[in-house]
Amino acid sequence: MLKNRLKQEREKRDLSQRELSQMINVSQQTIGSWETGRTEPNSDTLQQLANFFGVSVDYLLGRSIDGQSLQMNSEDNKEDLKEKFYQLLDILKNNDINIFNGKEMQRQTQFELFSDIKSALENAEKMEELRKKTEE
What we know:
By secondary structure, this protein is mostly helical. The chain folds into 2 domains: 2-61, lambda repressor-like DNA-binding domains (434 Repressor (Amino-terminal Domain)), CATH 1.10.260; 75-135. It has 7 helices and 2 strands. The protein has helices spanning 2-12, 17-24, 28-36, 43-53, 57-61, 75-93, 107-135; strands at 99-100, 103-104. Strands 1-2 form a two-stranded antiparallel sheet. Helix 2 (17-24) crosses helix 3 and helix 6 packs antiparallel against helix 7. It is elongated, with a radius of gyration of 18 Å.
């Protein structure tokens, strides 16, 4: 995931590997190695990249969908994640998105994604209800 997110963020800013390497003080070959997945940056450099791109480290590592960490430690965070999934469902349902991972997404794929997310949400809600009942 890191290799994809790193390349995506770099290209979003119309930067070449060489330009990015100069900005964060590493070699162009190093950027290339990260983007192909041959190597990964150390934790300090990863934080530097996150700061440079204005995203979280979790986002770069694929643990977040929007640049913010997806931590599930509190009820507020659980509701926030649930809300994000419902927002995504609305987007898919209204055909407001047709690009996924930089490529055009067919309507059938959108429908299948919508169905899968909706099913996952329904299952998660049922599991949460069962968990609460067993705690009582």
